[in-house]
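ok new one. same drill as before - structure tokens go in, u give me an amino acid for every spot. 265 of them this time. try not to just spam alanines like last time pls lmao
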């Protein structure tokens, strides 16, 4: 069975139990896993069929690397409007090809990204490596750090900029940081499955509580994600307690001082 079709079937089975067990008024963040995604009947009906692999593909064509996230890696965890095109950090995802991930090694600035315009994604979706498939909208998006809660329990993720097809879009609210399931750490970009700020929500300034307003689980306008091929997110990490980046900064300062103190010849 085609591995992408198998993943989609798994997602549909999980969605039934998801809808039965979840209460829309819950203040806890919804845990979204790599092989599980809430899928509506309408979304399933409109999902494009996965094309069978072609046997006459040019042998000289090389697909991009399939990126699998590991512990400590940050990813752009995302699903399009139909939950057909996704990236959860596995090689089973259509957006696995050349996905931009960032290994968190301390406080600092990072970027994560996805690209449906790769040869691999286009071939898996259209059967052609030079296809022109674009995604219509999003139904979930977040910056997620694998094992982030366990590795950096005080970590804060602040979204700085989001670019769709290379164009900067407006942020409609501020993000907070919270645990995905007591294991991951994430900053929601668009998560309509959460109705209240979760109990463990926090920022670099402290805890966040109350109703959505200045802070929200949906910090973008979904209309800005029509017909997209690439999405990139810049974010800043603080609170890791790791001095790796600080040591690098100190080394840069020392080097700069050395240059300034060198006598001219």
């Amino acid at each position: 069975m085609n591995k992408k079709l198998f993943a989609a079937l798994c997602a549909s089975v999980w969605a039934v139990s998801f809808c039965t067990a979840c209460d829309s008024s819950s203040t806890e963040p919804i845990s979204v896993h790599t092989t599980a995604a809430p899928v509506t009947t309408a979304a399933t009906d409109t999902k494009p069929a996965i094309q069978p692999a072609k046997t006459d593909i040019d042998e000289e064509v090389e697909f991009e690397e399939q990126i699998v996230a590991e512990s400590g890696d940050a990813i752009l965890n995302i699903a399009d409007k139909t939950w057909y095109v996704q990236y959860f950090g596995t090689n089973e995802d259509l957006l696995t090809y050349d996905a931009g991930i960032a290994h968190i090694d301390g406080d600092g600035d990072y970027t994560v990204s996805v690209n449906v315009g790769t040869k691999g994604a286009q071939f898996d979706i259209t059967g052609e490596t030079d296809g022109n498939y674009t995604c219509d909208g999003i139904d979930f998006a977040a910056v997620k750090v694998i094992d982030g809660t366990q590795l950096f329990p005080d970590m804060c993720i602040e979204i700085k900029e989001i670019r769709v097809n290379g164009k900067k879009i407006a942020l409609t609210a501020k993000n907070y940081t919270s645990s995905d399931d007591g294991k991951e750490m994430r900053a929601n970009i668009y998560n309509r499955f959460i109705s209240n700020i979760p109990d463990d929500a926090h920022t670099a300034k402290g805890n966040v509580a109350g109703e959505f307003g200045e802070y929200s689980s949906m910090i973008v306008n979904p209309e800005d994600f029509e017909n997209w091929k690439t999405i990139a997110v810049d974010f800043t990490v603080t609170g890791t307690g790791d001095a790796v980046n600080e040591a690098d900064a100190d080394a840069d300062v020392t080097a700069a001082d050395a240059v300034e103190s060198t006598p001219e010849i």
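The mean pLDDT is 79. and btw Residues 119 and 129 are 5 Å apart (CA to CA).
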